[in-house]
Design brief:
The protein is α/β, with parallel strands linked by helices and 342 residues long. Helices cover 35% and strands 21% of the residues. It has one domain: pyruvate-formate lyase- activating enzyme. The chain is built from 11 helices and 16 strands. Bound molecules: iron/sulfur cluster (SF4).
């Protein structure tokens, strides 16, 4: 069982101390016996403990920076929401395929932003622009926010903020089962709580440092019982030997565990495994022993964002995935909605 995350090292940006959340967090970390260092800006963070890239990378993943979010312009977040809302960047997990490895470059530490009210004000502007249409905000585009929220409770505040809003909806996804503090949040049904799930094989070989399938399912049951709309992202769908059985068992276990009422309003999102050439280089550097198959010749090349092509499964394989896993979902959860396959 993965324990709730505790950073080994905390950096604090001086400006952050002007905000109540930092004033609360820093003494708390001190009491926990965690080393606290000051930094003028997270860009100045150098000399993380470790003798080589490998060790420094691991230290960074257990380092938390308490900072201020300067850019209050939100990125778009298709297809799951209109906007990405930034509370945290980075993640303590060690999923080999994680896209954060390329987007975070050589700064894979976790940053939590303490200027929550400014972030909420910005969200408010976006909601006003679209009103009376609802606006969906995705809180896990640059992190697995649940993994750190037992320490900060930023997500809990966001859930309650959107719970009171007229046009806002919040969504996020997690691979962590540490959800207890979120169960009594006043969500008013405006937050869709999603879990990222995968076959036991993938979790075992490619998702170190995250909660296991059974733990995620147990957490999902608690979340459903707390009245949240629930969803699952099956990602990345990866064609390992025995994948049909693996995904079949995963969905069977889920069906057995979830209470009947939770199956009525359930969403699934399906995302196939993909990689880019730059991602492949970073993965092989950070996880040199990985079993992850990254052979371009077996994949289909697809035009990607910023002009960087990505390698996805062939058309036949994609059809097979949709038929097989989509079929399992239809069988086990006839009332659920598959939002997209990409
Ligand atoms: Fe990346 Fe999510 Fe794994 Fe964290 S839990 S390393 S964000 S894939």
């Amino acid at each position: 069982m993965v324990r709730p995350f505790v950073p080994e090292l905390v950096y604090v940006e001086p400006r952050a101390m002007e905000y109540p959340l930092a004033k609360e967090l820093i003494p708390k970390f001190e009491n926990m016996g965690i080393e606290i260092r000051e930094t003028t800006s997270h860009n100045q963070i150098r000399n993380l403990p470790g003798d080589n890239h490998f060790q420094k990378y691991r230290t960074a993943k257990s380092t938390l920076v308490v900072g201020v979010r300067k850019t209050l312009k939100f990125d778009t977040s298709k297809p799951s929401a209109e906007y990405a809302i930034p509370f945290v960047t980075g993640c303590m997990g060690h999923c080999h395929y994680c896209y954060l490895q390329t987007t975070m470059g050589d700064k894979p530490y976790i940053r939590t932003y303490v200027n929550l009210d400014e972030i909420f004000e910005s969200a408010d502007q976006y909601m006003k622009e679209r009103a009376p249409e609802p606006t969906r905000f995705e809180a896990s585009c640059t992190s697995d926010i649940v993994g750190v929220d037992h320490l900060t409770h930023s997500l809990k505040r966001a859930i309650e903020y959107f719970g009171e809003s007229e046009h806002g909806k919040l969504r996020f996804v997690t691979k962590f089962a540490h959800v207890d503090h979120l169960l009594d949040a006043k969500h008013n049904g405006r937050t869709r709580f999603r879990f990222s799930i995968n076959s036991d094989y993938i979790i075992k070989y490619f998702e170190p440092g995250t909660s296991r399938l059974q733990e995620r399912i147990e957490a999902a049951v608690k979340v459903a019982e707390a009245g949240y709309p629930l969803g699952f992202i099956i990602a990345p769908i990866y064609l390992h030997e025995g994948w049909r059985e693996g995904y079949g068992e995963m969905l069977e276990k889920l069906e057995q565990a979830l209470p009947a009422f939770a199956k009525k309003d359930l969403t699934f999102e399906m995302i196939q495994h993909r990689f880019t050439k730059p991602a492949k280089r970073v993965i092989q550097k950070n996880y040199p022993m990985t079993k992850l198959e990254l052979d371009e010749s077996k994949r289909k090349w697809k035009w990607g964002r910023y002009g960087i092509g990505k390698y996805v499964y062939t058309n036949e394989e994609q059809e097979d995935i949709k038929d097989t896993i989509g079929g399992f979902i239809d069988n086990h959860f006839p009332d659920a909605r598959i939002e997209y396959f990409t």
